[in-house]
Amino acid sequence: MLDQPADVDLLRSYDSVLVGGASFDPVLRVRAHEAGVRVVSTYGTSETSGGCVYDGMPLAGVAVQIGADGMVRLAGPVLFDGYDGDPQLTASVMEGDWFVTSDLGEIDRDGRLRVLGRSDDVVNSGGVKVPASAVARRLGAHPSVIAAEVVGVADPEWGERVVAVVVGALGLDEARDWVAAEQPRTWAPRELVAVDRIPLLDNGKVDRVALRELR
After folding, report:
1. Contact 43, 62 (CB under 8 A)
2. What is the CATH number of domain 118-213?
3. Coil, helix or strand at residue 123
4. Using one digit for the tens of pLDDT, what is the confidence trace for 165-211?
5. Would you list the DSSP string of 133-145?
6. 61: alpha, beta or left, given left = phi > 0 and alpha = psi -120 to 50?
7. Can you tell me whether residue 121 is helix, strand or coil?
8. Looking at domain 56-115, does it have CATH number 2.30.38.10?
9. How many beta carbons lie within 10 A of that of residue 95, not counting itself?
């Protein structure tokens, strides 16, 4: 929409444009800001009645914490009463008053929640749990990168190897240094595959099976 002047004018007419449901591309956010569109990133789940954290800050009455396992936990009046007819499933995601999400996150020095990715989107490489989505976002912020995704592939030495699939002009050494400048060096990709486009499923989501087969 940011490529269409009429669409940009429409977006500018709103007080805010809420973006949720998936990680927000930081490059796209910068483009929106430069176009005069005020974007607010929201975070929440069906169990929290939708968005309850806005630009990393919880709504009044909502509490956020990160557990020892790295999982985001939420509490407050927005929480659901439980899964209908499935008390066992409800108990599996509740710790007292806290709802345990499936997302990994951290709280920054300003007290803002930063979601790193889903727990099932983690690459276990050499005993280090690498959040693939967080590494992909970092790579996607490189000025020479158009799009980036990260997957784990089987490796006899590391268990899983972190592989970056990149659209753009970026070499492996530069990619590793770029990631390590803001994230742990152990998260940096050990392999990079350059492609013309990121493979997608019919529903528009990234085809992660196809990504692993690109090597």
Report:
1. no
2. 3.30.300.30
3. strand
4. 999 999 999 999 999 999 999 999 999 999 999 998 887 788 888 88
5. HHHHHHHHTSTTE
6. left
7. helix
8. yes
9. 13
